[in-house]
Amino acid sequence: MQPLLTNNRITQLFQIEYPIIQAGMVWASGWRLASAVSNAGGLGILGAGSMYSEVLKEHIQKTKAATSKPFAVNLPILYPNIKQHIDIIIAEKVPIVFTSAGNPKTFTTLLKDAGIVVVHVVSSSLFAQKAEAAGCDAVVAEGFEAGGHNGREETTSMVLIPAVKAAIKIPLIAAGGIATGRQMLAAMVLGAEAVQIGTRFICSDEASSHPQFKEAVIQAKEGDTQLGLKQLVPVRLLKNAFSNMILEAEKNGANMEALQTMLGKARAKKGMFEGDMEEGELEIGQVSSLINEIKSAAAIVTEIWNDFAAAVSKPF
Amino acid sequence: MQPLLTNNRITQLFQIEYPIIQAGMVWASGWRLASAVSNAGGLGILGAGSMYSEVLKEHIQKTKAATSKPFAVNLPILYPNIKQHIDIIIAEKVPIVFTSAGNPKTFTTLLKDAGIVVVHVVSSSLFAQKAEAAGCDAVVAEGFEAGGHNGREETTSMVLIPAVKAAIKIPLIAAGGIATGRQMLAAMVLGAEAVQIGTRFICSDEASSHPQFKEAVIQAKEGDTQLGLKQLVPVRLLKNAFSNMILEAEKNGANMEALQTMLGKARAKKGMFEGDMEEGELEIGQVSSLINEIKSAAAIVTEIWNDFAAAVSKPF
């Protein structure tokens, strides 16, 4: 067995201590969470998908004030004011951008020309290859078990990680179903050089998600999430009145327009930020069933790292 | 790192050399495959779900003639002539039975009173606990990525293995998404003491599945399987005209009766045994995308074990 991994292509690329990356999550990952994770030696990410551009600017500036360490912004490419977001990211000299939900060709060159490290989130080997061809520095391969928006092919981390690993030369970050150091080691055995963790960081003191949402995640049991809205963009949600309504409608043959109407606007904000546990959209991963405690982001990074170290010294 | 694992609770329980178990699969795992895997040092399993009782008896006797090593029978509890199957299993002194698709309480005591080691297949921690309470010697935890019949909660191996591990004291065998030694190590890092492998063994010389089905599995790419028939018993299938018809019907709100009629009888036989690649039901796992060669069962066991050994000595 090698010594504990504190130096690989990902830690070098991002200039971080541990290959533990906090996922950019709507309504949860503002400057408090991102700076806390970066200060703890991981990579903190601002979730720009739920921010107006002025809000993003404020969060970038506050993150820079709160940490001298590297951090990133997660940028859903389909965001309506994406150009304005990018102008701010470049002007504020954000060192790393994770792009998602769109074609990696669209902005990779623009961002890289500005000196930014670019990582693209994919759910298949094919898109991993496209990201590599577009000049991305790394990819995140996100499995079916992940919370929030998800791939149509439903490939799980156990299969996706080795598949993507075999398909590309740039480093691979695994996401989906990872909340513990033992899961982190499993992902690295499968070919990842780092892990991206969302659900576990929702249950941190610093996440801006509503306390009732954090509590619901803590209480979630196996089978309490489901993938829905497959005709729109598939999304993994904590089951509640809203998700049950969607599921029922899908079973009964609802079309895209009907589902779009049911979804309406600002459902995610209503659930995750405002705390409406029944009518809100609650994006969360399957691994919520393994999480039982809210703690500081720094304590989470330490816990995962210690668990990883223990797993490395006694893998089975 | 420990030395290579050749001795744990599962190898002791089954009296086998390697903790590699071949899944009992309808229309694929008769005496040729089961005896080849057992002779190679793993545990071969006869898939009784596609056999009349007289056929099962013949396969048990041929397996005993072909190997002096332990082997098992996979017994779907909902099988119509289950009592007759059990009488034969007891009379023929089959040493190990894997029960699936039903309540572990139903037959565990009966089988154990006959001196048989009993393992139950589950897709959740709750059912793993029920299997333990029923007196089972071990459980198989089968993730969403697995081929064939599957759990309703859709929990993937990355999440299911540690969840089941935490819920029970008896040993855990991981199934779903595992075809390589590196995936085997990942499963063991997550808490498994052995792996059960189906899809990889479909692509063996000794599997009784139709050559065209084996070829289709070799050709399968990422995203070529899907979980369907969720209103009946969810099943992971290779996509073809039949599965597309089912998917379309489900999207349009088909009810259970309509789906049952579309499924009809003997669809699995038509596809996997008779080689109808469009109208047959082709049960296979997501990991088919990683499999590119048909070889002997012994070569598969050796390949997985060597890959596992390499992964243990250089996990990342």
Layout of helices and strands, plus pairs?
Two copies of one chain form a homodimer.
Chain A: H1 9-14, E1 20-22, H2 31-39, E2 44-47, H3 53-66, E3 71-76, H4 82-91, E4 96-100, H5 108-113, E5 117-122, H6 125-133, E6 138-142, E7 148-149, H7 157-167, E8 172-175, H8 181-189, E9 194-197, H9 199-202, H10 211-219, E10 225-228, E11 235-238, H11 241-251, H12 256-263, H13 267-273, H14 297-313
Parallel strand pairs in A: 1-9, 2-3, 3-4, 4-5, 5-6, 6-8, 8-9
Antiparallel strand pairs in A: 7-11, 10-11
Helix pairs in contact in A: 2-3, 3-4, 6-7, 8-14
Give me the CATH fold name of the largest domain in chain A.
TIM Barrel
Strand order of the largest sheet of chain A: 1-9-8-6-5-4-3-2
Largest interface, with counts of residues having CB < 8 Å to the other chain, equals: A-B, 55 and 55 residues
What fraction of residues of chain A sit in β-strands? Answer: 5-15%
Tell me what you see in this structure.
The structure is a homodimer of 316-residue chains. Chain A is an alpha/beta fold and 316 residues long. The first copy, chain A, folds into two domains: 9-208 and 291-313, TIM Barrel (Alpha-Beta Barrel), CATH 3.20.20.70; 211-287, no CATH class. Chain A contains 14 helices and eleven strands. Chain A has helices at residues 9-14, 31-39, 53-66, 82-91, 108-113, 125-133, 157-167, 181-189, 199-202, 211-219, 241-251, 256-263, 267-273, 297-313, and strands spanning 20-22, 44-47, 71-76, 96-100, 117-122, 138-142, 148-149, 172-175, 194-197, 225-228, 235-238. In chain A, the strands form two sheets. Chain A has an eight-stranded parallel beta sheet with strand order 1-9-8-6-5-4-3-2. In chain A, strands 7-11-10 form a three-stranded antiparallel beta sheet, covered by helices on one side. Chain A starts with 8 loop residues before the first helix and ends with a helix. At the A-B interface, helix 7, helix 8 and helix 14 of A face helix 7, helix 8 and helix 14 of B.
